Amino acid sequence: FLIDTATFSLLYVISLFCMLAPDFDEPELTEGDIAVDSDSERNADPCTSSGCRWPKSSDGKVYVPYVIANHYSSRELQIIQRGLDSFSSMSCIRFKRRSNERDYLSIESRNGCYSYVGRRGNAQTVSLARSGCIYHKTVQHELLHALGFNHEQTRSDRDNHIRVVWENIVENMKHNFNKIATLNQGTPYDYNSVMQYHRTAFSKNGKPTMVPIPNNNVSFGQATQMSQNDINRLNTLYKCCEYLTSHDTIYCLQFNKILVC
Ligand SMILES: [Zn+2]
What we know:
Strand 3, helix 2 (74-90) and strand 4 form a beta-alpha-beta unit. The chain has five helices and nine strands, in the order αβββαββββαββαα. The protein has a five-stranded mixed beta sheet, with helices on one face. It has a two-stranded antiparallel ribbon with strand order 1-2. By secondary structure, it is an alpha/beta fold. Residues 33-34, 141, 145, 151 line the site of zinc ion (ZN).
């Protein structure tokens, strides 16, 4: 029975959370902004199983129903709507107002910016707090979580691209840097992904918590919107064939042999 430091810090966070428990309605958060319902659902892979993928309609589109809480200003609603709509022009994902669908996103201003990874069943909160989360990149980031994607720095191949500087990370935040057996969709590690945290994320001393390899001067974590790789892997995961370039189609075919693009 082994407990590594990351697991230990995770347990520490859980126990701390239980002691403080400021609001029992708020789910626990792992990786800073990823919500989980229970311990067993930690490290959820990005739709490696079919279960967390949103279903494809017979017209080839993936309709993801949503509702938006009524506590946003019109300016905030505009930014959220722009984020939702941005997926339509580059993928087969169509966020649409919920009518009576069972599974849907409930976009609300709660405590911070967070989302579950993938489809959870029934209503699932995507929290976009009015203070600090109403940005185009943040809306896209949280929606990508809801569609099944994890953070770039937790990718299975991240050690080839960034070095995690464990000693600079806030002690009880180290679990944010645990690797996940992610399904990378044949896409390269992308410093410009909207899912990549910045250089000093969760730093306890202002020093970098991540350093790029091999050139430690490369900038990363500065995305203001989804990168082409973010779009490609979304289209590959959801088999949005008409939105894939010929290069991506190869990955698409490799990944799922029965796919007909
Ligand atoms: Zn996130």
